[in-house]
Amino acid sequence: MDTHSMYLDNAATTPIDKRVFEAMLPWLRDEFGNPSSIHSHGRRARIAIERARANVAALIGADPSEIIFTSGGTESDNTAIAMAAGEVHGDRTNSRSGGARFISSQAEHQAVLKPLEHHAHIGDSVAWLPVDHAAVPRTETVVRHIGPETRLLTLMHVNNETGGILPLADVAKLAEAHEIPFHSDMVQSAGKLATDIHAMAVDFASLSAHKLHGPKGSGALYVRGGIDVESILRGGAQERGRRGGTENVAGIVGFGEAARLALLEREERMERWMQFRAEAVTLLQDAFEHLIVNGDVEEVLPSILSVSFPSTHYDIDGEMLPMRCDLAGLAISSGSACTAGSVAPSHVMRAIGHDERTAGASVRISFGGMTTREEVRRGTGMLIRVVQEMAGPSSLRSHSRMTIP
């Protein structure tokens, strides 16, 4: 990491924890066995994978047998949708007559939006639910769209841009009552919010290591016990026949260690994030009278802070804003890292009701387990200076509040 830059973009990715790296190192250097081999090299690799599986399962209160290791959140999201679109059997989910129908929201991650757009393109109907100011669909809206032809309901637990929290248990029980499979992208919430996946009646859930100071390229898909689904990657019998291919042992071990540490340190991290978020909001509101803090004040993941500079009061080139911050030594984002190459304003910011220029002039500040209070204060100060320079003197709240940390 660039030691001269304030890194406040942890919702995009987190730096790998030294303890995670140390846990992975033997499997990158010395331990090379194939987990499917029956000799001692293979058995050691298999033991390491199963230990990691237990740690990842504990993130959401699952049974280890319900965890399928994948290459990350995108594969997990795509796989859950593909499983539901195909022939799905089990005690609750069975094949329905007619074309598949999906229900999701306008503010989902691209890893859910794109495969559903593909299904719409080939003739399946997709209901796109509107969202509130926190980018969360309301439960009553879900109710209005459920029908006998619905094949899958997929809604993220925590919105990756606003931090808005879906009432997961309420929505999952609603889906259960209608015998509809429910998938949730839990990439941002796993290891941060206390979760009992069985009590919540969720069928599929997507997880990713690199949001928890683990390695990139390592993820998991939770598939509730009792659901029998066809393999998406056919080949060997790995992952109980559900995902063929030799496992990424080092990545899986890293995910397991990151999961263990996230649970161990969850309460302490959450407490610090709440303090960081409150301080950053205060500094920004003191500097900008018309600042919009996106999302709910109470029901929000405190590691994410999304703010917008309304076009009615601030003349800001949103496309240049994150680049100007980067030049000033601050790493933040204008939305999901998966859409960073796009010049279009965030679809999430448009979904919550912002006009195009305000949506473009929106930034996300996000904290990780390694973030310090000094980084938050200095980083927020950098953002304030950049916006003031871009918007001009009229952006200042008052001359008495121009002191920037």
How would you characterize this protein structure?
By secondary structure, this protein is an alpha/beta fold. Helices cover 37% and strands 14% of the residues. The protein has 2 domains: 6-12 and 266-401, Alpha-Beta Complex (Aspartate Aminotransferase, domain 1); 18-261, Aspartate Aminotransferase, domain 2, CATH 3.40.640. The protein has helices spanning 18-29, 40-60, 73-85, 110-121, 139-145, 168-177, 249-287, 321-328, 347-351, 356-360, 373-391; strands at 6-7, 67-70, 88-90, 101-105, 125-129, 150-154, 182-185, 204-208, 219-223, 227-229, 292-294, 304-308, 330-331, 362-366. Helix 2 (40-60) packs parallel to helix 7 (249-287), helix 3 (73-85) packs parallel to helix 4 and helix 7 (249-287) crosses helix 11 (373-391). The longest helix is centred in the middle third of the chain and has 39 residues, at 249-287. It is globular, with a radius of gyration of 22 Å. The model is unreliable at 87-99 and 398-405 (pLDDT under 50).
